[in-house]
Amino acid sequence: MRITFSLRSIFIVLALITLAGCATSPQERKAEAQMHRAAVLNAQLGIDYMNTGNLKLADEKLKRALDQDPDSVLVRNAYALLMQRLGKNDAAEENFRKALDLKPDDGDVRNNFGVFLCEQGKYGQAQKQFKSAWSNPLYNTPEFAYANAGICALNEHNDTLAKQRFHQALEKRPGFAPALYQLAKLAASKGQYQKADAYLGRITGAARYTPDILALCLKVKRTVGDMNGAADCARDLYRMFPNSPQARALLQTQ
């Protein structure tokens, strides 16, 4: 929740008065720095556990990080993402907003908060967060905010805006696989398989190898009559992601 200007000014003044009355000793500053480093380490461990699906350990590490440094934007952002994964939406939103209170111009938090809001169906609010992210010249990965804005536009059934955002993502980073995949998927849904094939052909290297991309590649290649290309996509899907829903679905159709 955004604090009004006058109330926020009062808080700032009170904080300054309090700080003026008690100087921090070198030992206290050293202890604070050590706690901050410990919080960052635990946050990173929590993020790693979250990425591998071990949400219980992720929760333990991130709660410890919060205890060590509740004013860390990194920790608040990571904990918000975990709460989002766990379906604890009130806690997720609270921590996203606390992170933004600490650092309003943080593009990563704005982008992540936008994704969360879009999942809640708050599309207008989500788009404002994405725009705040990509408008920040210090945000190093605006292509993610543009691509997420495009996906959110698709959720609103606004294909025109979605395509615009995906192309803006590609302007920032040509060859950006998430944007190319979404454009290919959108083209295929409209029966424009040659166009979809062209978009997929621009995805190269390791970025090509995801279950979604390979499954779409197989469908598109078959439709345009490129059976060798279809065989390559099927082989890679089976070989690299044998337990994926996409591979299992393909096996059922054979």
Automatic annotation (TrEMBL):
NCBIfam families: type_IV_pilW. InterPro entries: O-mannosyl-transferase_TMTC, Pilus_4_PilW, TPR-like_helical_dom_sf, TPR_rpt. SMART domains: TPR. This is Type IV pilus biogenesis/stability protein PilW. Residues 1-20 form the signal peptide. SUPFAM superfamilies: TPR-like. It comes from Acidihalobacter aeolianus. TPR repeats lie at residues 39-72, 73-106. Keywords: Repeat, Signal, TPR repeat. The keyword Chloroplast does not apply.
